[in-house]
What we know:
Layout: E1 4-8, H1 19-27, E2 30-33, H2 40-43, E3 50-53, H3 59-71, E4 76-80, H4 90-99, E5 104-107, H5 112-120, E6 133-137, H6 150-153, E7 159-163, H7 169-178, E8 186-191, E9 199-204, H8 208-214, E10 221-225
Parallel strand pairs: 1-4, 1-5, 2-3, 2-4, 6-7
Antiparallel strand pairs: 7-10, 8-9, 8-10
Amino acid sequence: MSDVFFVGCGPGDPELITVKAKKLIQKADIIVYSGSLIPDPILKLCKKGKLHDAAKLVREEIFDLLYKNAKKDKLVVRLHDGDPSIYGAIKEQIDNLEKKGIKSIVVPGVTAFLASAAALGTQLTLPGVTQTIIITRAESRTKVPKRERISELAKHKATLIFYLSVHLLSKLVKEAVEGGYKRTTPVAVVYRASWNDQKIIKGTLDDIVKKVHDEKITRTAIVIISDVIDPETYEYSKLYDKNFSHGYRKIKNKK
């Protein structure tokens, strides 16, 4: 029996895939991939393997594909967009394989919120603004614990990042304001970050819903609420401050 590789292939741009992920895709005998979320140039890296679109399969069929081929000592890749550990549903797959004696190996990838920050040219943690990032989703069919409701998370005034939620943007904005964000708080929505058709919509909690509606964006987008997007003021980092010493640099000419 062989191991099963859960591989993150990045946010969309084929050049953002890791070297390890690329090698595994090229050598794979079987690839079970996440439907339209994986761009064609990445799928074309598969030179000899058979491709299976997971979007057309139910959980049990995916489990069966992974298990039966690993049992035959095939090189099996479960290919996820972004990074498998963020909303990738890998835990249930790994546990199922482990019960049958098959080991899983996770290969990380660049996730969409990082590609979104890069597209915005922004820093998600900024001294004097926030040092905290919260990654979450709006509640829909997948329930969210009460302590993690948007109105509760908003109380931290941190950089708040949403996956799988742009279609619920009105609800998201309403709860963020209820939690304490000002309606003037900057918001960015990045559609298909790093893809050729990437779009960036910037606004505030007061006008972002209309702007996104006008662009007809209802899926495959990251929503970021934070003053770091358009800070009125911020502090310089201490790391390179001439008056700040650390293990690799001492203060020069200290009197």
